[in-house]
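Ticket reopened. Same input as before:
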Amino acid sequence: MKKYNGNGLVDNKRRTLLKGAAALGVATALGGLLPSKAWAKKKVGMGFIYVGPRDDYGYNQSHYEGKSSLAKLDWVKAVDQENVPETIEVQKAMESMINLDGVQVLFPTSFGYFDPHILKIAPKYPDVMFLHCGGLWDASKHPKNVGSYFGYIDEAVYVAGIVAGHTSKTGKLGFIAAMPIPQVLRNINNFTLAARSVNPKITTTVVFTGGWSLPVKEAEAANSLIDQGIDVLTCHVDSPKVVIETAEKRGIYSCGYHTNQAVLAPKGFLTGAQWNWSKVYQDYAEMISKGTKIPNLVRGGFKEGLVTSSPYGKAVSAKAKEQADKVRSSFMSGSMVVYKGPIKDNTGRVVIAAGKEYKQTDVWLESMDWLAEGVIGSTKG
Amino acid sequence: MNETEFSLLNILIAVIGGAIRVGTPFLFVSLGECLTERSGRINLGLEGTLMMGAMTGYGASYLSGSPWLGVMAAGMTGVILGGVHALLCQQQKVNDIAVGIALMLLGTGLAFFLGKPLIQPTAAHLPSLHLGSWSDSPVIQAALDINVLFVIGVLLAPAMAWFFRYSRWGLYVRTVGESADAARAMGLNVNRVRMYSTMAGGFLAGVGGSFLSLYYPGGWSEGLSSGQGLMAVALVIFARWNPVYCLYASLLFGAAATLGPTLQSIGMTWGYYLFHAAPYVLTLIIMITTSSSTRLLSGMPGQLSNVK
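Engineering reply: fixed in the latest deploy. New output:
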């Protein structure tokens, strides 16, 4: 039986007991029939939790696609739950997956699940691995059975920024973001730094909507930005559908995010940054089945196959394609460093001194709280 | 200097355009609720009706290819939900508010459940009137791209005011709302009048939902309404049960809601959380300044205060 400190729901506790009893029964019964099945792959139970719907053209869909790719592995039992808010609800969802579905590893995929929810539940179940998407695991502060994985999608955002820089005629780019958290800021900065490497006069105007899924605000932000003369729009919200469609309706260019949105904007879609979670989840399944120790931090970009670029749209010029491909291959070879000094933030402060550089893997970048020069916006609301 | 003036004008135009776009669903839901409340019944379920309307409207437009058919389907869904509300409320010892909350949860839950396959596909959207084509400025053109539903809503508000004031049916609705006993003495069937008012109110709320999914922001997603149906119900109190005021209030709420994104897009970077809260702050301020401890809210239908 798992250690249980008795603070959980009575319901859960009873279920744990029932399940335990049932498992004991099954184990004894099977024990006689199947003395050893060492040759077979060990069964792996994996649980996925999404903050929104599975088919939102965005973040949640990208994870769902990753989870669905596990279906071809018959030794994996993957369960999932969608629309779980970042509240005590996610704690309940995690406990029920552990106690009722018997998962050995949980993937709560939304940013806000980490602190306090995972950090609160994880110590109760030391045998279960809690792998959070995007969170920053810190060996000195966090439990050992917690870990995090994330793709350097900002590499793909950088490539999109190059294309945007080549395509923009007004020199004004727009970025619709949910909240000023490090991952979002890093995407905004990469997009801007890339575009300014093409044309140093380019600016990116940011609108923070204050939530991951607020279609009316996103549409309003898109319209206001377009009114101000921006001609390439991208975003970091859960579902880019509204933003991409609004850009297309208003006749400007757009860069996608999370999944491929090319079908939503046949005229104006340039390219986009996409996740490739299938690889991550299959790798994890393999590790658990073999009993290898799971690393607490998994990171990767183009090179490791965790992120990709959406295919170029019609409006992308040959010159833009050429430079974007070149940048992508230098990411592949590992020679590309985005955060190479001198870099100033948009208040004029030097954040990265000349001669200093932060490689992609540097965790310092994961606590980013500044916006680069050329971004019009503020991290403090 | 010229540039700042130009951008101030731009903001103003953008806010007006946004007020029209964001305010339209508020307008329809609040007109619907206004009609229902004038008959002496509260329907808090309009948030659910809005979501169901958005979902069925999108589905019908996707399947049939005609957005107007979608609008009708959304309206009819509203009629059905309104009918259910009315039917439940006219039973003995049933509380309007409890039924309304139940229907709100049912409506949103059902819309999420049935709307699962509609998140991905793209349906035919409602057309808009390009009233800004005289101008060269893309800002003005965009702000004056006005949807036909908004025009209908604008015409509907004074028409409903006229209906309450001068028509026989309007008198019935008002009488039932003011005093059920007096209405019965006149030989009116109180329940029937309320049934029709709630169904018609549901129709309007459903149409408001179809505006969300078929025009702005367009598309079906579960965060589509984010409480607009509930805010519209509060808006009716704010508008003192007057349909024309509902129009003004909707535009004001729409404008307040666009303030956050608009100010950021022109480079005003501070206080965006504060501006996102603007509609709610506005409601509180107006409610506080117009309230009185000595009398009932003016314009409040008499029967509304004694919910069973």
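The first helix of chain A runs from residue 10 to 33. Confidence is low (pLDDT under 50) at residues 1-18, 23-38 of chain A. Please confirm and we'll close it.
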